Amino acid sequence: MKEYFKKLFLGICISYTAVSITAAVINAITGMENDNSNTLVMFTFCVIASIVLSLYSLFDNVSPLAMMIIQYVAACLFCGLFLFIISRYEPISPRGWFEYFRSFTIPYVIIAGVFYYYLFKEVKEQNKLIHEIQEQN
User: Fold this and answer.
1) Which of 39, 68, 81, 106 lies most in the core, judged by the most C-beta atoms within 10 Å?
2) pLDDT tens, residue by residue, 71-102
């Protein structure tokens, strides 16, 4: 369990850093400004995405494509719930909802791609070790 939380924390830190740097570069290029509430929303989205992605072991009996789609939909639902709660304190326009989900989808696809690449790489290494053990026996 300790190892799980260690990996989850590392994933959150890496994803938030990547998203923050990307947002900073985009804001510098376009001349836009970012306020603290957007930064907190980005952090919350990174936490939600990291938690949903870390639960991949729950989908062992599902095809990888279905797992990716289910995880994306689950992450969108949790982000939508978070935005719904936020909208009670600060209204979000219909266009704002679209922008928030677009802003979530692009980094999510990048984060998920990196996550699944390393997961695939780890599985290949484990398969290689299994074959080596089988050959030795």
Assistant:
1) 68
2) 889 988 998 898 889 888 888 888 888 888 88
Which of these, 91, 5, 85, 80, lies nearest to 48 by C-alpha position? 80
Give the single-character DSSP code of 90: S
The rounded distance, in Å, linking the Cα atoms of 41 and 104 is 10
**DSSP element (H, E) containing 33:** none
- Give this prediction's pTM: 0.68
Cα–Cα distance measured from residue 44 to residue 59, given in angstroms and rounded to the nearest whole number: 23
Residues 111, 53 contacting (CB under 8 angstroms)? yes
Q: Which residue carries 């870390």 as its tokens?
A: 54
Question: Can you tell me whether residue 1 is helix, strand or coil?
Answer: coil
Q: Are the CB atoms for 8 and 50 separated by under 8 Å?
A: yes
